[in-house]
From TrEMBL:
Protein name: Sugar (Pentulose or hexulose) kinase
SUPFAM superfamilies associated with the record: Actin-like ATPase domain (SSF53067)
Residue span, Carbohydrate kinase FGGY C-terminal domain: 279-477
Pfam families found in the cross-reference section: FGGY_C, FGGY_N
GO molecular function: kinase activity
Similarity comment: Belongs to the FGGY kinase family.
This protein's UniProt keywords: Kinase, Transferase
GO biological process terms on file: carbohydrate metabolic process
Organism: Ruminiclostridium sufflavum DSM 19573
InterPro entries, per the entry: ATPase_NBD, FGGY_C, FGGY_Carb_Kinase, FGGY_N
The Carbohydrate kinase FGGY N-terminal domain, residue ranges: 18-245
Length: 535
């Protein structure tokens, strides 16, 4: 046994590790990291949301099956590599998709199927609350879902005793604590940056608007307690330990850090928590996060205002759709290849075909596509309809086809970013990318840098994603010194000396993307017709 292997084995036995778990839209991942914050082992579980009764959802059974499976795969990896079981750890962190709606009754029963961020069914509530608060309340936010349920006179509303997000739910079941990290909380309801808590004035406005006396609902009483990075957020109970580790080996009493949303853990995983830093997470959905120097001049429906896990103000541009449609095209190409009697692995298929995008015409040769698997709030679509369009004059070849699918994956995002960069003159020193969009070397970076007309960097560690990000927040809770900020901790203890691979925007690509965006904007009427007439 090597010295390094023996060292890792001992820190696992002694609990000098951190466990991070993130529930993403297509993957649940569990990681174990060491005292130096590097990865020791991981486990993945693939899953997909379901569209049931016009609602994008995951069942409670699927949630726990995925969490338990990913955890077991991590522990089996540890056993195979180091010959020991995971019985304890320094801390555990839970992260998950932000927003959505999980409402529970007094008996802790889920009152209605989990409504995820992907649902664009709260337009009326979103518009009304934005006007009421003079603050952007996107359709994805938990409060928009609650208010829409009230407007729809849904019966379950009168029974609500607690409302939280997916990360908050998992944390609650493991610890018994109804708490939420401020970053995830900022996607439920507006935050007061001075108090690092839900905005009390807006809570009063909401209660008055719904006539809370008649409804017997006080918003303050059903929201989780807000916590910031570095605070201790409870301990793993005996019941929680059995729920997470079905083999019964994990011990109770392990402290947990505040649960966070995937946006916050993405910021941590890319070291983008300080002012004038930003990151773009691109996978099933795509969102850009930029830590602001000051508040925006006015409210924009296209821009979310959320926070870092410490409570710094962040402008967030979120698009519901990114890679799902071109993933479907890749599946079709794979079928064609197999029908011809060949077998090409998924990595080679993606690298080869996506690589062709860099050889296409700068403006995609006149092609147009919309990857709207679901609705898209930035362009005002409640539902989606994937669409590919060309004219007789378009240059229809494989390179242009792959390029247009990558361009359109960022079309809605570009619409929102234009507001920040052009109307609000927001400044950002660096943008870091992570997610499946960037897996093929340089391709995703080049396309993204063309879209935002700024350098885009990729760190080697960013591939570990939000599970690693929430593990780092756990490490910060355990190891921070005095009033050490999260940014300082990341710079000095995690990312010291790491610069990442950077790609600068190509002027021809930037011009081509801008030309494509003219076509994209003009063609929204075609997408609207498809949604209206092809339901």
């Amino acid at each position: 046994m090597s010295c390094e292997t023996n060292y890792i084995r001992n820190i696992i036995i002694n609990g000098q590790t951190v466990i991070g778990i993130e529930l993403g839209s297509s993957r649940i991942k569990t990681v174990l990291i060491g005292a130096d914050n590097t990865l020791i082992a991981s486990g993945n579980y693939e899953w997909e949301n379901r569209y049931i009764n016009s609602i994008w959802t995951y069942s409670i059974e699927d949630i726990w099956k995925g969490v338990q499976d990913s955890y077991q795969k991590m522990t089996r990896s540890v056993k195979d590599k180091f010959g020991v079981a995971v019985k304890t750890t320094g801390t555990i962190g839970i992260s998950a998709m932000m927003h959505g709606y999980m409402a529970f009754g007094k008996n802790n029963r889920l009152l209605t199927p989990f409504r995820t961020w992907r649902n664009n069914i709260t337009g009326q509530a979103s518009e009304s609350l934005t006007k009421l608060f003079n603050y952007p309340v996107p359709q994805r936010w938990s409060i928009a879902h609650l208010y829409q349920a009230i407007l729809n006179q849904e019966e379950h509303v009168s029974e609500i005793a607690y409302m939280t997000t997916l990360s908050g739910y998992i944390h609650w079941q493991l610890t018994g604590q109804k708490v939420l990290g401020i970053g995830d909380a900022s996607g439920m309801f507006p935050i007061d940056l001075k108090t690092c808590d839900f905005n009390s004035r807006m809570i009063m406005q909401f209660n008055e608007a719904i006539n809370s006396d008649k409804l017997q609902l006080n918003l303050k009483n059903i929201l989780p307690t807000v916590m910031v990075a570095g605070e201790k957020a409870g301990e793993l109970t005996a019941e929680g330990a059995k729920l997470l580790d079905i083999t019964g080996q994990l011990q109770a009493g392990i402290p947990l850090c505040p649960p966070e949303g995937d946006a916050g853990t993405g910021m941590v995983a890319t070291n983008s928590v300080s002012v004038r830093t930003g990151n773009v997470s691109a996978g099933t959905s795509v969102f850009a996060m930029i830590v602001l120097e000051k508040e925006l001049s006015r409210t924009y429906s296209e821009i979310d205002l959320v926070t870092t896990p410490e409570g710094k103000l962040v402008a967030m541009v979120h698009s519901n759709n990114c890679t799902s449609d071109y993933d479907a095209w890749m599946g079709l190409f794979s079928e064609a290849i197999k029908a011809l009697g060949m077998d090409i692995g998924k990595p080679k298929l993606y690298d080869t075909l996506l690589g062709l995008a860099l050889k296409g015409a700068s403006d995609c040769g006149g092609l147009l596509a919309y990857g709207y698997i679901s609705g898209e709030h930035i362009t005002h679509f409640e539902e989606g309809c994937p669409l590919f369009v060309r004219t007789s004059k378009s240059s229809f070849n494989l390179a242009n086809f792959m390029r247009v699918n990558l361009f359109t994956a960022l079309g809605a995002l570009k619409t929102g970013l234009n507001i920040l960069f052009e109307e609000e003159a927001v400044r950002v020193d660096k943008i870091l990318g992570h997610g499946g969009f960037f897996k093929t070397k340089e391709v995703g970076q080049k396309i993204m840098s063309a879209a935002i007309n700024a350098p885009v960097s990729i760190m080697e560690t960013a591939g570990e994603g939000g599970a690693w990000g929430i593990a780092l927040l756990g490490s910060y809770m355990l190891n921070r010194k005095n009033d050490e900020s999260l940014g300082s901790f990341l710079n000095e203890k995690v990312f010291a000396g790491e610069q990442g691979r950077s790609v600068n925007p190509d002027p021809a690509d930037v011009a081509g993307f801008n030309e494509f965006m003219k076509r994209y904007t003009a063609g929204l009427a075609v997408e609207r017709a498809a949604v209206d007439y092809l339901k």
